[in-house]
Write a structure and sequence with these properties.
This protein has 520 residues and is mainly α. Helix content is 75%, strand content 0%. The longest helix is centred in the N-terminal third of the chain and has 35 residues.
C-alpha cells in the first residue's frame, strides 16, 4: 500500500497530537509528586467514558483487526461470536466481579489472591503472569504490529518494532495509566470511525453506488454462507468454531478469564472513581463490543466479492485500505497504529504494576512513592526491550502467531478461572485447592491434546475447566476435613498456609510447561 503526502501528514499530526495530549493530562498540580496510585491506578480518577474506551483500546490491536477481518473473509460472521459473547461477559464482570475487587482496594489480581488465600498464591501467579505478559502477549503485540506495518507499508520488521515501541513509550512512560486511559479515547474514536467508514465504502462499492443497504443485500445474496452463525460439524472451520458449543462451552471460560481476571484489562476498572463509574464504563465497553463485528468482520466479508483472488485472508483489510481516497487512508492507517500502540502501552503498564506492587514492594521495608514510580518506568522500558529481542526467535517460526497466543494461554485459562471463581464465591476453597486447579490445568490440557487431538480447542478448554473445578473442590474438602483452619471466609483475613513447595519453582514450571506444550 502506498501512502500519499496527505496520508503521511495526517498520520504525523496524529502522532504529535497524541504525545502532546498524553503529557497534558499527565501533568501534576504544583507541589504534588506523582505517587504509585497516580501512576498505576490514575489516582482512582477515571470516569466511565475513559474506562470504557480504554477497555476497548487495550483489547483491540492490529492482529485482531487484520486477523478478524481475515477470518470474516475465510469463515464469515460466525467469528463475530467472540465479540458479541464478550459483551455479555463484560456485563457479568461489572455486576458480580467488580464490586468484590473495588471493595478490596487492590492494585493487582495477584494482590486479591493474597487477600483471599495466602502470599504463595500471589507470588506464584505474579511471576506466572509476568512471564506470560512479557514473553507471550507483549511479544506477540509487538511482532504482529510490526507485521501489520510490514504488510501495509513494506517497512522492515525490526524498524517497525522499534517505531512502535518508541511511540508507545513516548506517550505512556511518563504519565502511566492516566496517560494511557485518556489518550485511549482518541484511539477508540479513530478506530470506530475509521472502521465504520471502511465498511461503508466497501458496501457502497458492492452496491455500485446505490447505498450501503443495497450493498449489504447483494452481499447476503451472493455469499449467504458467510452469514452462518453456528457452523455444522461438516464445515471445514468446525475445529475453530465447534458449533453450538461455542455458545455454551469453552468460549465462556476464555472470556471470563480475559475480561474478568486479566490485569491487562481489569486494571482500568480498578482505577475508577467509584463502583458506579466502573460499572458504567464496563457497560459502555460492552456497547462498543457490539459494534466491533461491523468495524472489523464485515469488511472481510465484503472483500469476498471485492477482492476474490486474495493470496491470504489476512490481506483483506490492508487491500481494502488501498481502495480508500487519499487523506482518509491516512486516517484509517492512524487508527490501525493507534490500536497497536494502545495495546503496547496498556500491557507495559500492567507489567510494571505487577512487578512493582506484587514482587518488588516490601511492606516491611517501604520505600518512597516516587521510588515505586521510577521502578515502574524502568520495568516498562525493560519489558519492551526484552520483547523486541525475543520476538523473532519465539514467533518467527509460527505461521499464525495469534494461534500461538491462544494455544499457550488456553493451557492455563481453565485453572485460573477456577481459582478466582471458587475464591470469590465458595468460602471453603483453600489455597492448595486453588493452586491444584492452576497447576493441574496445564497437565490436563497437555494430556487431552496428546490423547484426544481431534477435540476442538474450545471444547478442550471447557472440559479442562470442569476437571479443574472438581480437583479444586476435592482438595479443599480434604484439607478442610483434616484442618478446619484452612477454611477461609471471603471477608476474613485469617489464612491457613503451607510452605511445602517453592513458590518461584512452581511459577517457572507453569511458564515452561506452557512453552513446551505450545511447541510440541
Amino acid at each position: 500500500m502506498t501512502l500519499s503526502t496527505l496520508d503521511i501528514s495526517v498520520f504525523v499530526f496524529y502522532v504529535i497530537a497524541l504525545i502532546g495530549i498524553a503529557y497534558y493530562v499527565s501533568r501534576e498540580k504544583a507541589g504534588h509528586e506523582k505517587n504509585a496510585n497516580d501512576y498505576f491506578l490514575a489516582g482512582n480518577s477515571l470516569p466511565w467514558w475513559a474506562i470504557g474506551a480504554s477497555l476497548i483500546a487495550a483489547n483491540i490491536s492490529a492482529e485482531q483487526i487484520i486477523g478478524m477481518s481475515g477470518s470474516g473473509y475465510k469463515i464469515g460472521l460466525a467469528i463475530a461470536s467472540y465479540e458479541w459473547m464478550a459483551a455479555i461477559t463484560l456485563m457479568i464482570v461489572g455486576k458480580y466481579f467488580l464490586p468484590i475487587f473495588l471493595e478490596r482496594k487492590i492494585y493487582t489480581m495477584p494482590q486479591f489472591l493474597e487477600q483471599r488465600f495466602d502470599s504463595r498464591v500471589r507470588t506464584i501467579m505474579a511471576i506466572f503472569w509476568l512471564g506470560v505478559y512479557v514473553f507471550v502477549n507483549l511479544t506477540a503485540i509487538l511482532w504482529l504490529g510490526a507485521l501489520a506495518l510490514n504488510t501495509i507499508t513494506g517497512i522492515d520488521m525490526m524498524y517497525g518494532m522499534i517505531f512502535l515501541a518508541v511511540f508507545s513509550l513516548a506517550y505512556s512512560l511518563y504519565g502511566g495509566l492516566k496517560a494511557v486511559a485518556f489518550t485511549d479515547i482518541i484511539q477508540v474514536v479513530l478506530l470506530v470511525f475509521g472502521g465504520l467508514f471502511l465498511s461503508y465504502m466497501a458496501l457502497d462499492l458492492i452496491g455500485q453506488g446505490q447505498g450501503v443497504i443495497q450493498g449489504f443485500n447483494v452481499l447476503m445474496d451472493k455469499a449467504p454462507e458467510k452469514f452462518d452463525m453456528i457452523l455444522s460439524p461438516q464445515s471445514e472451520h468446525y475445529a475453530d468454531l465447534p458449533g453450538i458449543s461455542v455458545l455454551v462451552g469453552g468460549m465462556w471460560i476464555m472470556n471470563l478469564s480475559y475480561w474478568g481476571f486479566n490485569q491487562y484489562i481489569i486494571q482500568r476498572t480498578l482505577a475508577a472513581k467509584d463502583l458506579r463509574e466502573g460499572q458504567k464504563g464496563i457497560a459502555f465497553a460492552a456497547f462498543l463490543k457490539l459494534l466491533m463485528p461491523i468495524i472489523v468482520v464485515l469488511p472481510g466479508i465484503a472483500a469476498v466479492l471485492l477482492l476474490p483472488d486474495l493470496g491470504k485472508p489476512d490481506q483483506a483489510y490492508p487491500e481494502l485500505m488501498n481502495l480508500m481516497p487519499s487523506g482518509l487512508k491516512g486516517l484509517v492507517f492512524a487508527a490501525l497504529i493507534a490500536a497497536i500502540v494502545s495495546s503496547l502501552a496498556s500491557m507495559t503498564n500492567s507489567i510494571a504494576t505487577i512487578f512493582t506492587m506484587d514482587l518488588y514492594k516490601n511492606d516491611k521495608n517501604p520505600r518512597s512513592e516516587v521510588h515505586y514510580v521510577k521502578v515502574g518506568r524502568i520495568v516498562s522500558f525493560t519489558a519492551l526491550i526484552v520483547a523486541m529481542l525475543v520476538a523473532k526467535p519465539l514467533l518467527g517460526q509460527f505461521d499464525q502467531a495469534f494461534q500461538y497466543i491462544q494455544e499457550f494461554t488456553g493451557f492455563f485459562t481453565p485453572g485460573i478461572v477456577v481459582l478466582f471463581i471458587l475464591g470469590m464465591f465458595w468460602k471453603k476453597t483453600t489455597a492448595n485447592g486453588g493452586l491444584a486447579a492452576a497447576l493441574g490445568s496445564a497437565v490436563l490440557s497437555f494430556a487431552l491434546k496428546m490423547l484426544w487431538p481431534e477435540l476442538p480447542f474450545m471444547d478442550r478448554v471447557g472440559l479442562v475447566f470442569i476437571l479443574c473445578m472438581l480437583l479444586a473442590v476435592v482438595v479443599s474438602l480434604v484439607e478442610n476435613k483434616g484442618n478446619h483452619e484452612n477454611a477461609v471466609d471471603l471477608k476474613g483475613i485469617s489464612f491457613g498456609t503451607s510452605k511445602s513447595f517453592s513458590v518461584s519453582t512452581a511459577a517457572v514450571c507453569l511458564i515452561l510447561a506452557g512453552f513446551y506444550t505450545t511447541w510440541w
